[in-house]
Amino acid sequence: MDFQTLVFFFLSAILVFASLRVITARNPVHAALYLILAFFSCGGVWALLQAEFLAIAIILVYVGAVMVLFLFVVMMLDINIDRIRQGFWHYLPLGALLGVLMVVEMGLVLGSKYFQVPASEAMLPANISNTKGLGALMFSDYVYPFELASIILLVGMIAAIVLTYRGPKKSKYTNPAKQVFVKAKDRIRVLQMPVEKD
Predict the structure, then answer these.
(1) What is the CATH number of domain 1-77?
(2) Most CB within 10 Å of its CB: which of 53, 102, 104, 180?
(3) Predicted confidence band of residue 81 (pLDDT cuts 50, 70, 90)
């Protein structure tokens, strides 16, 4: 067994362990930290597969931005774990059915001929990097799936804004134009109080 295979098995074991801990950890903060570890391990596996762009992208985008945001949100929210777990057994059959369905779909997708790379396209020329080859494929052969993914992300972003919008804030503010025309007699009232004598 060479060193690269050993590193692959090491990173894969960490990835599987971290992925299992994401869904089994009781503390949401710990689950988010395990997800960060899983993303780092996945980036290492992609780097071993000579997909440097994807490795850097998952570390910069997911770990550097998305997971830090998730971690701040989870730490700021007061999550009641007992209330969340009340309906666990009620929704377990539906969740198990959806999980099995997703596993079957992933098996069908990964086992199909759609993802098989022909032998002529498997190797890139020496003067083209894998990032350039990925960009050329993304904007030529796979431009419609790429545009569809961008539309789905846009809809998700708009949905997040709509769900968190609470209406206009009713805050007090001053109007400088009205402040200029204010007269002292309209704002100040002098009270005449009787003088008390001892």
Answers:
(1) 1.20.120.1200
(2) 53
(3) low
Maximum pairwise Cα distance, the chain: 111
CA distance 87 to 101: 21
Q: What does pTM read for this prediction? A: 0.54
Query: Rounded distance, CA 65 to CA 59, Å?
Result: 9
Tokens describing residue 77: 């929210």
User: For residue 155, what pLDDT is reported?
Assistant: 92
C-alpha to C-alpha distances, 94 to 26, 99, 139, 159, 162, nearest whole angstrom:
21, 9, 39, 25, 28
Nearest alpha-carbon partner for 38 in 13, 75, 6: 13
At 198, list the tokens. Answer: 């001892």
**Most confident of the ranges 11-15, 70-74, 78-82:** 11-15
CA–CA gap between residue 116 and residue 122 (Å, rounded): 10
Cα angle 21, 23, 27 (rounded to 5 degrees) comes to 75
Specify whether the CB–CB gap between 12 and 45 falls below 8 A.
yes
pLDDT at 119 over 60: no
Q: How do residues 55-71 score in pLDDT, each as one tens digit?
A: 888 888 888 888 888 87
